[in-house]
Write a structure and sequence with these properties.
Layout (H helix, E strand, L loop, with lengths): L1 H22 L7 H6 L4 H5 L16 E3 L3 E8 L3 E10 L7 E6 L4 E4 L10 E9 L5 E11 L5 E11 L4
Parallel strand pairs: 2-8
Antiparallel strand pairs: 1-3, 3-6, 4-7, 5-6, 7-8
Length: about 160
């Protein structure tokens, strides 16, 4: 009887561990999803090949006005939003395939249309502080037809816990 109880507790613990490990991940995309991607997915995966010169200086480049934003101190339960403004400083249109955050509590939004050379765009990130306290750092990874393919921006600040 103790053996059955032990097995039930172990199974429960394994299931809860797997749930906890995946619960704060916002990376709904996979390498397979990127492979299936849109019309520029090959360009995003390997920007130096898609019928373009091998010179990476001739690729799209994403240049952020501010790569890290400190939101200061907020109270637990607040939603912090920031818009990261960028410019395509490259030689070809910039295509953002996806943006993903380091935690499911942070949701990024990005432009779907290509940004021409010299053009500007915005990526908005919303961080829900519910259940998050003290120092917080949430990164957003931008995957695009740039070299390297991934660029990161950061939301950071302090979250005061709610007094219960």
């Amino acid at each position: 009887m103790k053996n059955i109880q032990f097995m039930k507790e172990t199974l429960f613990l394994l299931i809860m561990t797997a749930f906890a490990w995946t619960s704060c991940q916002n990376d709904s995309g996979s390498a397979q999803e990127i492979r299936k991607g849109g019309p520029n997915s090959e360009l995003v995966r390997n920007p130096a090949t898609a019928n373009m010169p091998l010179d990476t200086n001739l690729l799209a480049r994403i240049t952020f006005e501010l790569a890290a934003f400190d939101f200061g101190t907020v109270n637990e339960g607040d939603v912090v939003a920031h818009t990261f403004k960028f410019t395509n400083t490259g030689k070809v249109p910039l295509t953002i395939l996806k943006c993903r955050s380091s935690c499911g509590c942070t949701v990024p939004e990005w432009p779907e249309e290509p940004i021409p050379p010299g053009g500007t765009g915005e990526i908005t990130a919303k961080f829900n502080t519910e259940g998050k306290t003290l120092e917080q750092k949430k990164s957003i990874t931008v995957t695009a037809n740039t070299y390297p393919n991934d660029t990161k921006v950061l939301l950071k600040g302090m979250v005061n816990p709610v007094k219960r």
